[in-house]
Specification:
single chain, about 725 residues, alpha/beta, Rossmann fold, 3 domains, 11-stranded mixed beta sheet, 6-stranded parallel beta sheet, 22 strands, about 45% helix
């Protein structure tokens, strides 16, 4: 079907017996298979950690003598053979859920567009939850055998590295990525030359090269403007994720929407479904219409013809979270488009015109909503908020009848669950339990796991977190330029046996990272209780242009470094997927304090819950659907409060009261063998309710049944 090919680089010197390690390094299937990760780690565990779990660098740097040794090691070869037996079976499987349940989707690909994809820490082309969700979506689509293809950008500088100064100020470091170190494959045309596509702007064309990332059975194709024929300015268009200036931003979104469609055409794809993960890719609706206008349709006919196959997922209940551009900027960069659509300028603007206090804008959210038949929010409450927010687009309908449904987000269980916990579950729920992740009956059998066995795994994961934090401090200290107070602030005094609370997310003001600091004296009494200490670990980045978010980090950091906290408040810099993995697996409680109803869904708490951590959250997003009174704790009530000051006060009081009167006493209520049975009962209730309902297994199936299949039909 496709007149292209991506080539595996031949830069590994591998013994013949284990030569397929190079192939595996270029397929991210290994990232959600613990045994596959071990096939790399066992070659040299210290080097594996030092290189940030990058198998490509590992195989290049490890040296032939150690590889020869591994090729003669019977135990290693047994592991190697097991891993590749599983890999081959996975890649060649035909009896997948998608094929059995929806054979009409076969050879009817789904194009999934996203500005960012969080697949692994070695591929930093993501900033946070939106990207990690997109990465999990691809991994689950692969597991289910869904014919899905991803479309995004290859960012030459990735997302920034965060450094926190001694005074708590965030510095953003942008480093050029070395693509040789990444699991990214150049795409070539049949003539042997690098495949490119072009996007026209009024004064010039921009060329885009193509990269392929293999995510199990799913291909992800990434656009890259760093092409020799482009100007230096144009080469920078895909250098960085989420440029702050509007010129870069609108050009990026044109390249994603228009360039993404052209890339799929060049690769030989004719998708039956076009899924926009947020509004960044909404220009694809116009490019698809342009194709039909060029073949003789009117613009209105083209929009009507393509609308039914377009799906738009909105992730933000904040109006400012939807990109909007001044009309003069659209004039500047898209003036060549409306003649091709055979519509006048004003009619073109009407497609996405939005009236705001500062004037008229071209709204990417309006463009996507008007030109997609499938529209969804990402939780039940967010669905209500989205229908209210976009009601003006359907003024003749009641608010409840606004055609925006919801598919609550989920997380990829295999990617986020700790290996030790997976082994324990397999012992008691059966070896095939991963095939039934969304079956509540399976998880009802979780009580078969003895409390001491589950608690032993939980304590193991907490010790791993503590060890990892200390090693991070050691590495930063060795690098120099680290103030002694930062050593303490970064967790060197962490106690793996104390109640540990995690708060890690993007530092946007509405997420209220400072809520737990509202009454510092009361908090100090809580964390320094005799015989019942409490630790709180903070982590997260603010966008480099978000001054309020950076000030919030500084506010938290200044409390963290106070001597009175006894090292029990911690801030970990440079939050990424690797740090997230340790946190969601190792903390006891996952705290989330958004100002309701501004958290569209959230997924970090789901990752924590599937590892046995308990959620302690405002009843917003997914937690409002999950909380049953026994599987965690709520902050505040299930109601909206118009006054932010009143809501902050009520939520802070609820937070402190619940910590003091429920969470801390329950955690430290132990039997003679130091087993907290009531706490473990709550862990089991949490896992029973969260894992089947809030995994990507349920989520992707729901997208298929409710959005993809109707779009195909």
């Amino acid at each position: 079907m496709n007149n292209f090919r991506s080539r595996l680089p031949n830069h590994f010197d591998l013994p013949k017996r284990i030569h397929r390690l190079g192939e595996l390094a270029y397929n991210l299937w290994w990232t959600w298979q613990p045994e596959a990760a071990r096939v790399f780690g066992r070659l040299d565990y210290d080097l594996w950690e030092r290189l940030g779990h990058n198998p490509i660098r590992l195989l290049r740097e490890i040296g032939r003598p150690r590889l020869n040794q591994a090729a003669d090691d019977k135990d290693y070869l047994a592991l190697y053979d097991r891993v590749f037996e599983g890999f081959d079976a996975y890649m060649s499987e035909t009896e997948t859920w998608a094929l059995i349940t929806h054979p009409e989707l076969i050879n009817r690909p789904i194009a999934y567009f996203s500005m960012e994809f969080g697949l692994h820490e070695t591929l930093p082309i993501y900033s946070g939850g939106l990207g990690v969700l997109a990465g999990d979506h691809l991994k689950e689509a692969s597991d289910l055998g869904l014919p899905l293809v991803g479309v995004g950008f290859m960012y030459a500088q990735g997302f920034f590295t965060q450094r926190i100064s001694e005074d708590g100020w965030q510095d953003a470091l942008n480093n050029e990525l070395d693509f040789v170190d990444l699991p990214a494959l150049q795409v070539f045309a049949d003539d042997g030359n690098r495949m490119t596509v072009e996007v026209e702007f009024p004064d010039r064309n921009v060329s885009l090269a193509l990269w392929e990332i293999r995510v199990g059975r799913v291909p992800l194709y990434l656009l890259d403007s760093n092409v020799e024929s482009n100007s230096d300015f144009d080469k920078s268009l895909t250098a960085r994720l989420y440029w702050s200036d509007l010129d870069h931003r609108v050009m990026q979104e044109v390249l994603l929407g228009v360039g993404g469609v052209r890339m799929l055409r060049a690769l030989g794809y004719n998708p039956s479904v076009w899924h926009m993960n947020e509004g960044h890719a909404a220009f694809l609706t116009l490019e698809r219409a342009r194709e039909l206008v060029a073949s003789g349709r009117t613009f209105e006919q083209a929009l009507e013809k393509t609308r039914g196959q377009n799906i738009f997922t909105t992730h933000t209940p904040v109006p400012a979270g939807n990109d909007e551009f001044p009309l003069w900027l659209i004039d500047k960069y898209l003036a060549a488009l409306w003649p091709e659509l055979k519509v006048p300028r004003e009619k073109f603007f009407d497609i996405a015109r939005h009236h705001v206090p500062s004037g008229e804008t071209f709204s990417m959210g309006v463009l996507a909503l008007r030109n997609a038949q499938g529209r969804n929010a990402v939780s039940e409450l967010h669905g209500r908020v989205a229908r209210r927010m976009w009601h003006f687009l359907w003024p003749d309908r009641a608010e409840d009848d606004v055609p925006i449904t919801y598919v609550t987000n989920g997380v990829h269980t295999a990617n986020w669950m700790a290996r030790r916990l997976r082994i324990l579950i397999g012992l008691h729920l059966g070896e095939d339990w991963m095939d039934h992740l969304d079956d509540p009956d399976l998880w009802s059998r979780l009580d078969k796991i003895p409390d001491p066995a589950l608690w032993e795994v939980r304590m193991h994961l907490k010790r791993k977190l503590a060890f990892y934090m200390r090693e991070r401090v050691r590495d930063r200290w060795k690098a120099g330029g680290y103030h002694p107070v930062q050593v303490v602030s970064s967790g060197v005094m962490i106690n793996p046996y104390a109640l540990t609370i995690g708060f890690a997310r993007r530092f946007a003001t509405y997420k209220r990272a400072g809520l737990v600091l509202s009454d510092v004296d009361r908090l100090l009494n809580i964390i320094n209780r005799p015989n019942m200490p409490v630790q709180i670990i903070f982590a997260g980045k603010a966008h480099p242009a978000d001054e309020a978010g950076k000030q919030l980090i500084q506010q938290v950091y200044r409390q963290v470094k106070r001597a009175e906290t006894s090292g029990r408040l911690v801030f970990l810099e440079d939050y990424d997927m690797n740090l997230a993995r340790y946190l969601v697996q190792g903390v006891d409680v996952w705290m989330n304090t958004p100002r309701r109803p501004m958290e569209a869904s959230g997924t970090s708490g789901m990752k924590a819950a599937l590892n046995g951590a308990l959620n302690f959250s405002v009843l917003d997003g997914w937690w409002r659907e999950a909380f049953n009174g026994q599987n965690g704790w709520a902050i505040g009530d299930d109601k909206d409060i118009d006054s932010p000051e009143v809501q902050d006060g009520e939520d802070a009081g609820s937070l402190y009261d619940t910590l003091e009167n429920e969470i801390i006493p329950m955690y430290y209520d132990r039997d003679v063998k130091e087993i907290p049975h009531d706490w473990i009962a709550r862990i089991k209730d949490s896992m029973k309710t969260v894992i089947p309902q809030f995994g990507t297994r349920r989520m992707v199936k729901e997208y298929v049944e409710r959005l993809y299949v109707p779009a195909v039909k």
